[in-house]
Amino acid sequence: MQHYKKSLMITLVINRVCMAVWIACVFLVPQIARWYDMYSNKNPIFTQLVILMYLAMIPAAVILVKLNTLLSNIRKEKVFEHDNVRCLRIISYCCFVIAVIALIMIYWRLLAFVVVVAFGFVGLLLRVLKNVFEQAVVLREENDLTV
Amino acid sequence: MPIVVNLDVMMAKRKMSSGELAGKIGITPANLSILKNNKAKAVRFSTLEKICEVLDCQPGDILEYVKEE
Question: Do B5 and B36 touch, CB atoms closer than 8 A?
């Protein structure tokens, strides 16, 4: 098996594992929030935490599905396509949405700014990647139409 | 595009089919049809050279500039 196919398989497996974690989180969110309140010695924020975590899970689901589309496109050797550019754009927007949700969380816990910075940065990186892909699509089309 | 490819005219003059021409130039029939249908964005000099050699003509016989209105 070529190296890139193996590498792609590993990425696919990681994506599937993340999907499984997402499904587990649907049931575990209240539990996680309860644990958090148990070990933090500040005022309890159970309700806010549960609501925000469930809110953040919506863009997370979109990201996972879009990543799956992206990976299956790459598997079909369709890399520099408009479809993939759209996937990357949606994923980057979802990262920004999660950053905004974490921004609300700062009101109760200052440490949430770490999540804001992390997701904002990832969103920015993906946006740049999307711009690169957009240019690559133009180049590929030109190359395909050169006889 | 203001550049028009008149490949089919020259092919008719030389009585050559698309498949035969593609084979002699050494490009795929799919690529030749892109060229014939004016969908191509660029032509390599090596391809042009081969076409002229096979059809025994000049680049001007195949390519034409038409002013855009």
Answer: yes
The full set of domains in chain B, from first to last, is 3-58 (1.10.260.40)
What is the predicted pLDDT for the residue at A16? 95
Q: Which residue of A has its CA nearest to B47?
A: A147
CB A81: neighbour CB atoms within 10 A?
18
DSSP B28-50: -HHHHHHHHTT--SB--HHHHHH
Question: What are the DSSP calls for B50-61, one per residue?
Answer: HHHHHHT--HHH
Q: How many helices (H) and strands (E) does chain B have?
A: 5, 2
Write the pLDDT tens digit of every residue in A15-73.
999 999 999 999 999 999 999 888 887 788 889 999 999 999 999 999 999 999 999 99
pTM of the model: 0.79
- Each domain of chain A, given as residue ranges in start order, spans 3-144
CA distance B23 to chain A (A): 14
